[in-house]
Specification:
By secondary structure, the chain is of the alpha+beta class. Helix content is 55%, strand content 12%. It has two domains: 43 residues, no CATH class; 78 residues, 3-Layer(aba) Sandwich (His-Me finger endonuclease fold), CATH 3.40.1800.
Length: 171
């Protein structure tokens, strides 16, 4: 049993965090009081916390980068799931369903993604946010360059057909 100096209660030792600097090896506040104290401190001193973190990162750049790299390598699916949910409102499971429905091929050119380190891009309507399908990088960039404007794309088709005809007529 141990006394918490914050809530003034006697609690079981498993209610306290570890602290190697104390005689008994435990924090002087219970875990719930320590969590509350920590939240209050973070709320009251956000700039100080940000400055301390920045100083630590600058001082320990190599350790920090290695730690981040290990985290990213270990948690690729979690990171990807979060990114998809944040940007498109779907998770990795929904992405895999779309990918399977399209048999891993681009919805426009019916080819696999050329860059093996990339996934097919999620194509969506920029006004409504509605997902249209998965595209390879080239097709996704092509649509983007035309600003998803059907009129521009139709004019491009006419243009290409016109010159395709001139080349064939010249043979």
């Amino acid at each position: 049993m141990k006394y918490c100096y914050k809530c003034k209660e006697i609690k079981d030792e498993n209610e306290f965090g570890n602290n190697i600097t104390t005689k008994d090896g435990l924090m002087c506040y219970c875990k719930s009081c320590e969590a509350l104290r920590s939240r209050e401190y973070k709320k009251a001193h956000p700039e100080k916390i940000k400055a301390n973190k920045k100083a630590y990162v600058e001082k320990n750049k190599e350790i920090w980068e290695e730690s981040r790299r290990r985290y990213r390598d270990k948690n690729k699916n979690i990171i990807k799931d979060y990114a998809l949910k944040t940007k498109y409102g779907i998770g990795i499971k929904e992405y895999i369903c779309l990918y399977t429905l399209q048999k891993g091929l681009c919805a426009i050119c019916q080819q696999e993604e050329k860059d093996e380190n990339k996934l097919l891009s999620i194509d969506h309507d920029h006004e409504t946010g509605k997902i249209r399908g998965l595209l390879c990088t080239d097709c996704n960039l092509g649509l983007g360059r035309f600003f998803d404007n059907i009129e521009f794309l139709e004019k491009a088709i006419v243009y290409l057909k016109q010159f395709k005809g001139e080349i064939n007529n010249g043979k």
